[in-house]
Design a protein that fits this description.
Elements: E1 14-20, H1 27-41, H2 43-48, E2 52-57, H3 67-73, H4 91-113, E3 121-126, H5 132-135, H6 137-147, H7 152-170, E4 178-183, H8 187-197, H9 208-220, E5 233-238, H10 244-272
Parallel strand pairs: 1-3, 1-4, 2-3, 4-5
Helix pairs in contact: 1-10, 4-7
Length: 273
């Protein structure tokens, strides 16, 4: 059997920026706004070291790798596993996590095999595996209600650690360098935006009770252990009642220190060319 070549590690010259939050918190809009800003701010490096700037949205609905994700979100599994999670085995949590992680792994592996990361790269994620740290708590709620756990917060942390180990340790998906959490505490406002969007709501969007639980978990999650410690850039931005330009300005202000650090790395590379 022919062995796969060991691919070089270009992570030093990659910067991952992740936008997280419930639906209808302007993640896609701001991913595009940040990309536009970076193309101007990093123009010097686009020219000198072939820096590339890309946006990736998960799930990738047009990809074959997201087939089972789409079936799950549409509740189309005929014999769907039980919604509650065994507090010991975490079977259901692992089952659902794999659906989403395979889509992300397919993307990451194709990027590595095609050596996309051989050039300095900034990736802006409109959702990444961090969404699973709080969205999958929709399913955790069933266990908490059924088992009457005395310490639900500790159980949630255990579930989140399981997701992290699957994403980063097993699938080898990189952690993000910059994490931007976009908050909107008004479920009514989120629903209004989802309704005007026109798309059919998925299983995570159609239940206000669960949506509230997901929101609370998102607000209370400590993402620090799951972000690249070299940057440790986590920003919490409230988008409720703000216009898009104001949100963009807050994001840019929050990420500038990390951008300056990345520019120093790119400048050092440019001198060696």
């Amino acid at each position: 059997m022919k062995r796969q070549p060991i691919l070089p590690d270009y992570s030093k010259y990659n910067l991952f920026i992740t936008l997280e939050g419930l639906d209808a918190t302007y993640k896609e809009t701001n991913a595009k706004a940040i990309a536009s800003y970076l193309k101007e701010d990093f123009k010097k490096y686009i020219d000198s070291v072939d820096l590339q700037i890309k946006i990736v949205s998960f799930p990738r609905y047009k990809s074959e790798a997201s087939y089972f994700v789409k079936r799950h979100l549409a509740n189309k599994f005929v014999d769907h596993p039980k919604v509650d999670i065994n507090p010991e085995s975490m079977d259901y949590l692992k089952f659902v996590s794999n659906l989403f992680l395979l889509d992300m792994y397919d993307w990451y592996e194709s990027m590595r095999v095609n050596r996309v990361f051989s050039k300095p790269t900034i990736i802006i994620f409109d959702r990444y595996w961090y969404s699973m740290l709080y969205y999958l708590t929709k399913d955790i709620q069933g266990t908490i209600d059924k088992v009457h756990l005395k310490e639900p917060e500790e159980f949630i942390k255990k579930c989140q650690k399981t997701v992290f180990n699957m994403a980063h340790v097993y699938y080898k998906l990189p952690v993000t360098d910059i994490l931007i959490n976009l908050h909107n505490n008004s479920i009514d406002d989120i629903n209004n935006k989802l309704n005007t969007r026109g798309n059919k709501k998925d299983c995570y969007e159609s239940d206000d009770c669960y949506l509230g639980f997901v929101r609370n978990t998102f607000n209370n999650t400590d993402f620090t252990p799951y972000v690249n410690s070299k940057y440790s850039n986590i920003s919490d931005i409230n988008v409720e009642g703000k216009d898009r330009e104001a949100i963009k300005e807050e994001i840019v202000s929050a990420i500038k220190p990390s951008l300056r650090r990345f520019k120093l790395i790119l400048s050092a590379r440019a001198k060696r060319k």
